[in-house]
From TrEMBL:
It comes from Chelativorans petroleitrophicus. NCBIfam families: deoC (TIGR00126). It is an enzyme of class 4 (lyase). Pathway: Carbohydrate degradation; 2-deoxy-D-ribose 1-phosphate degradation; D-glyceraldehyde 3-phosphate and acetaldehyde from 2-deoxy-alpha-D-ribose 1-phosphate: step 2/2. This is Deoxyribose-phosphate aldolase. It catalyses: 2-deoxy-D-ribose 5-phosphate = D-glyceraldehyde 3-phosphate + acetaldehyde. Its EC number is 4.1.2.4. GO terms for cellular component: cytoplasm. Belongs to the DeoC/FbaB aldolase family. DeoC type 2 subfamily.
Length: 310
């Protein structure tokens, strides 16, 4: 849709203390019953973009990650949980551009998507044409999801038109690939900025809005998440279009994953708890989920290093 500055003006008032109060209520009073927790953790796996974004990534590491995505749980655990017939796998594997074709080959026939972080991840500070070229290159190599970053300065300077135009160019460059727009919320100073950047990203054609790169000093937090899902709700109410949400960065425990799922269930409803509308971006969450599921089956915890990719 065109950039609607009037709508941004109307969304300017974000009450941080009300948001923080709501988050506190959600995480303290709402819970997932013990018996249901295993099912919710399995759901969390299927909502995951299993990620490696390290400076020392190699093709070998990406192939191992893809093998893990194909079989995220050990055969004993699958048997113990009685889920032999359920196809529990992460929604996508997320990598840097040089590893896209490796991941595409390793995941052939699985239906697991390949996401590439593009546009000069993690800061977005390269010439626009360079960033657009990067998207084209990743799509050409077979990525069907593109996670772009925005230059945070455009938000901090309230340069909404420029931000809109850049994201619209990213949208166009993606073609049929899904576009996830990373806001880098830890750099945006205020929840108002988070809300307005979310609105601009959605207006410009984002399929998903995503909190963080995992490289900011503050990554995905629940108050920021709540501000973003409220923006998604407002966008849906006005346009009828559902935009997805991806919290990412620092989400490494099963407990944290359950809190995020409660937040989404309460604020957006169950329709958003499907992989086409919700993803966790996480590099180490799967290991803790495995440990919790193992505890559910055996009553014992194993050390993280017992799990591949830990
Ligand atoms: O997009 C995903 C993030 O980079 C993952 O961050 P993490 O390594 O803190 O889980």
């Amino acid at each position: 849709m065109p950039l609607d500055i009037g709508w941004l003006e109307a969304m300017r008032h974000v009450n941080r203390s009300a948001i923080e109060r709501r988050v506190a209520t959600l995480t303290k009073r709402r819970s997932i019953k013990k018996d249901n927790q295993a099912a919710w953790l399995l759901r969390a796996i299927s909502l995951m973009d299993l990620t490696t974004l390290s400076s020392d990534d190699t093709h070998e590491r990406v192939r191992r990650l893809c093998a893990k995505a194909r079989n995220p749980l050990s055969p004993q655990l699958v048997k113990g949980l009685g889920i032999e017939d359920a196809d529990i796998r992460p929604a996508a594997v997320c990598v840097y551009h040089p590893f896209v074709s490796t991941a595409v080959n390793a995941l052939k026939g699985t239906g697991i998507h390949v996401a590439a972080v593009s546009t000069a991840f993690p800061h977005g500070l390269a010439p626009l044409e360079t960033r657009i070229c990067e998207i084209h290159a990743s799509v050409e190599d077979g990525a069907d999801e593109i996670d772009v970053v925005i230059p945070r300065g455009l938000v901090l300077g309230a340069r909404w038109e420029e931000l809109y135009d850049e994201i619209a160019r990213f949208r166009e460059a993606c073609g049929d690939a899904h576009l996830k727009v990373i806001l880098g919320t830890g750099d945006l100073s205020t929840l108002r900025n988070v809300t307005l950047a979310s609105m601009v990203a959605m207006m410009a054609g984002a399929d998903f809005i995503k909190t963080s790169t995992g490289k900011e000093s503050v990554n995905a937090t629940l108050p920021v998440g709540l501000a973003m899902v409220r923006a998604i709700r407002a966008y849906h109410e006005r346009t009828g279009v559902r935009i997805g949400f991806k919290p990412a960065g620092g989400i490494s425990t099963a407990k944290a994953a359950l809190e995020w799922l409660i937040l989404i269930r309460e604020e957006l409803g169950r329709r958003w708890l499907e992989p086409d509308l919700f993803r966790f971006g996480a590099s180490s969450l799967l290991t803790d989920i495995e440990r919790q599921l193992e505890h559910h089956v055996t009553g014992r915890y194993s050390a993280a290093y017992h799990h591949a990719m830990a």
